[in-house]
Each structure stands twice: as structure tokens, then as C-alpha cells.
Amino acid sequence: MNCAGIIWQRIFSCQGSVINLSITQYSCAMRIVFGWNNFRIRSYQPFELGVTSNPDAGFTIELRQSYFHFFWIPFFGLGKKWAIRKEGKLYELPAVYEPVVAAYKHGVKSPWYTYLGPLLILAGGLSFWGYSEYQEYRYRQNAISYFKRNNAVLEAQLRQLSDKDIITLNELTENFWDSKPLYAKVEKVNGDVVTVTPVSAVSNKPMDVEDSYNRLGMQTASLDISLAQLLAAFPKKYDSSSGRAILQYGRPLLNNERNYLVKEVVRHFGPILGDRGTGSYGITGISMALYNAGWPAVVSAVKTLEGSIDWSESIGMEVPGGQTEWSYSLELRGRNYKTNDHYKFLLTLTDSTNNVHQYEIDGVNMEKTIREL
Questions:
Q1: Hey, how many other C-beta atoms are within 10 angstroms of the C-beta on 240?
Q2: Using an 8 Å Cβ cutoff, are 222 and 194 in contact?
Q3: Is the pLDDT of residue 30 over 70?
Q4: The whole model's pTM is what?
Q5: CA-to-CA distance for 301 and 314, rounded, in angstroms?
Q6: CA-to-CA distance for 43 and 321, rounded, in angstroms?
Q7: Residue 32: what pLDDT?
Q8: What percentage of the chain carries pLDDT values higher than 90?
Q9: Which residue, 122, 134, 291, is CA-closest to 206?
């Protein structure tokens, strides 16, 4: 129906007088409904109001609340009016009775649900605000948890450095987010002293970094860094991991009066697994997308350390090398996973030179850390 107009609902009449208790504006095209109506607040016997002395007058007098509605939800009051109910029908109160009952109208307040619309809007707004605050809280807690897990992995990697590791450093300047990373290839570890060779690369791709080291490493002088300095050169608090607050963690790691942050430790000269952070999980199990930025390999074993996931279908999968997070090469799939369960498993890869590499993957749903052992 294509129409727009006013519905006048003629509810009842008395002695030729019609009481229009409800008027609804509507538009069939836009389906917007509004108007006014009324409901009973209180009912009186006529003798209670002094209208008659007969206790059985055969009718009652009602005080009714008029209100504006939007989609039939009351939004605000339009005043009170009197009506007579007789034999189930409503009639206008004769004008002669108005002065008699007028005093009783002022003592009756409008019910709260006369303003149900604004109250619903307020409740909806508060609910949305509360939900947004809760989501913000959850996001922050998850971010803090992720930050702590990554910190734990980085610290463990620094305490177990080998000559296959390359440390990624960022120079700490006012605009350090735009600074190009510098790489420190670990040559040897002697107690608390780590000998490294600084290397710059044309890109941050692991294979490019390896190539730069292979070509330029012999021409660059090595230097010693204390392990304590390395362990101090990354943020320890989530609120200090960005902005100017991060400047306090800079350390002169390369003896050149410049401050650096330790960004990550990557074990090179083999597969280099990274996490795309995508995948799926649910009643059918879990799958996670990883990528291999290093040498090609094959999944030779998967061992569950915590949880009950069966990863056996991933064994034997090929893992091409030189990948980026935009072209992942490995989709691990497991059965028997329940949403929000914690998992930890040991992934074993065998590279193209038959060397074995093991990775501990620890997480919940898609939030996980990957640590090469």
C-alpha cells in the first residue's frame, strides 16, 4: 500500500459526542507510526468523588493519562482527563461534574511508564556505554596479556642466544617508529658477554637479512654487549610500550652513543615461523595460519603439551620458505578444541638440509606466541 494519512480511531460515543482517544499518524512508505492515546490511572465509585450519594450508581469514573506515542511506545504525557465507564464502554465526563472531581486530579501523579520511550532510550544508551566499556576493558586485558607473553618469549630468547640468532634493533629517536631497523648477528656468547656483528639490510625480510650478513659480515667489526644491557632494552610495562614513555628503555648497545631498543630475536639459517593471527575455531576444531619466512621445511611431528587437541592431520605438510604474512604457507589444523581453551604444543620441522627445528606454540583461540627452542 502506498499511502500516508491519519487514522482516527472512533472508540465510543455518548449522546452524539465522540471521544477520540487515539490518533495515529502513519506512513505506509516509511512505516513511521506516532500519535497519542491514553490509559487508565485510577478508577473511582461516583459517591467517592461526591458526584452522587448512591453507592451503586451503575458506572465508574476513571482518571486517564493521555500520552504521545512513537511506534506505540509512550514518550511523554499530554495531561489527564476524566471519563465515565459504563457497561464496558467509555464516555466523556459531563461538564457539570468537572468542578466536582477537579481537586482529585492534582493528587494523582503520572505513572513512570508514561515516559517509557525516553527511559528505554536512556537504558539503551547506558547499556551501549556499559558494553563499550566492557569491550574496551577486555581489549586492554587481552593486549596486556599478549604483551606479557611476548615479553616472556623475548626474554627467554635473549637468555638462550646462539650463533644462529640475529637480534633486531630499533634506534631510539624522537621519530624512532620511522627509523630503519639494524640487525646484530650473534657470533658467540660467553657468560654475560654477547659478541655481535652489526648489519644493515635492504629490507626486513629474513632472507634479505641473511644475505646482507653473508655478503657484509666479514667486512664489519664485531663488538661485545652485556646480556644485562640487552635484557634492559625493551619495555617491561604495557603502558610504557609506546609514545614518549618508551624512550626510557633505550640503551647504548653498539657503543656509538645512540640508544637502541631490542625488538625481536629471530633464529636464522633455517625455517622462521611467523603468526598471521588468522584462522578459525569452534565445535569442529581449530586452524591457524602461519608463514615461513626462512628456509623450506616439512612438518615432521606435532606433540600436544597442554590441552587435548589432536594435531596429527598436520604431520607431513610441506612448508615452503621465503614467505611473508600476506602469503602464508602453513595452515595447522587440529581436532577436539573448545573455544577459549588454553593450548600448548611442540611443532617439529625438518628443513631442506635435514636439520630439525622445534617450536613451542602457546595460546588461546587465535592469540598465541611462537618460540623456537
A1: 14
A2: no
A3: no
A4: 0.59
A5: 8
A6: 84
A7: 66
A8: 32
A9: 291
Give the residue from 343, 319, 223 showing the smallest Cα distance to 271.
319
* Structural domains present in the chain: 4-110 (no CATH), 158-267 (no CATH), 273-372 (2.60.40)
- Measure CA 109 to chain center: 44
Set of cell numbers at residue 165: 640468532
Report which listed range, 94-103, 172-181, 255-264, 325-334, is most confident. 255-264
